[in-house]
Fold this protein.
Amino acid sequence: MSTTLNEDKVKEQIVKEQKEEQKARTRDKPNSDSTKSKDHTQKRQPSNRNKYHFRDYQTCVPGTENVKGCDSNPDQSTCPDGTYPINRQLLDTKGRLVDQYQYCPGDPPKMEIPEDGRIEEAPRAIIITVEKFRSYPIKASKIQSSPNKFSLRNGHTHFWASKEVQEFKSEISDQNVKIKAIPIQWNWKYGDGAKRNLTFPGEAMPSHTLHDETKTSHSYIKTGKFGVTVTTLYRGEFSVDGGPWQAIPGQAAVPSNSLPIDVWRTEKELIAND
């Protein structure tokens, strides 16, 4: 994935600051016993060298999931597993943005901050990473069809999937932590090469017939046996000891089991071919 980071420029700045600080140390180094005695009571001035830290985030945060474009961006390129990239910002001590880029979980870092160039931040009691979020047993969506596991060629088979917010409880560092997995997107594959991504799962339609096209229906142009699957994207939130819900950057992509569909020709076609 391409990056907009001017990485070389940031690295050069860090190296330059390190050299300037080293020069200052050499210049201030005492060269005689009298100098040592003279400077003994003087305190060393703090370094003015800039330090940096990273901040990961996504545009979707708790309470704004109904905002247009929050659940998913159809123009956003996705990670290999179908999830959306995490935004990473490089900030200085005053919170000013130095640079930013996007990355997928598991990608090697596009840049590193030297150990002595990092801002010493107060440790957070609990941090839930996207890797930790994905380790919870998030259930896949269940697929259903109308007609049930059957269709006719050129008919509109109606599909829908379950939509369930799942909650997990865990004890981390002697604190009670709740984690929520919230479904935000359903990526369908119909087994005939067709696929599409939707931000809604569809719903049961008892009066549906093969003549009725729906927002989640699919029409097969060939007969045969096909397997339909859906991969559901879940975003995460966590709460510590009943505190406010906090967003977890990244998503979990959970694939479903395959639903078999048997597509036949229509009765009229069978009579015409006899």
